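B., you asked whether I could sanity-check this one before it goes into the benchmark set. Here's the sequence:
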Amino acid sequence: MKYMLLIYTDPAAAPVADTPAAAEAHGMWMTYTQDLAASGSLLTGDALQPADTATTVRVRAGDRLTTDGPFAETKEILGGFYVIDVAGLDQALEWAARMPNITYGSVEVRPVLDFAMGEG
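And here's what the prediction gave me:
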């Protein structure tokens, strides 16, 4: 079963860039990604640019409206994602609990809707 692991982090709680703590965190993320790939579960994943680079698009009454930044004002921002293929939710939750940011962020685990399987 496929799951998307959505990685949320409070930028104020994350290691500051270009510091030994940031280098250590980067190494932890690389190890996590390599472990996930070695397990055969990793389908894809990427980090996202900072939230201030986002543009939110809406169409209201036929007019396209764009807003700089993410739609919701929140402490935690979506920082990246993995799509994994595992036996079930328990395995997906185990991978989520191993993420390097789990002590200062959160991971939303969501099943991927498979239209080929007749879902939806």
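One thing to flag: Strands lie at 2-9, 42-47, 55-60, 63-68, 77-85, 105-111. Otherwise nothing jumped out at me.
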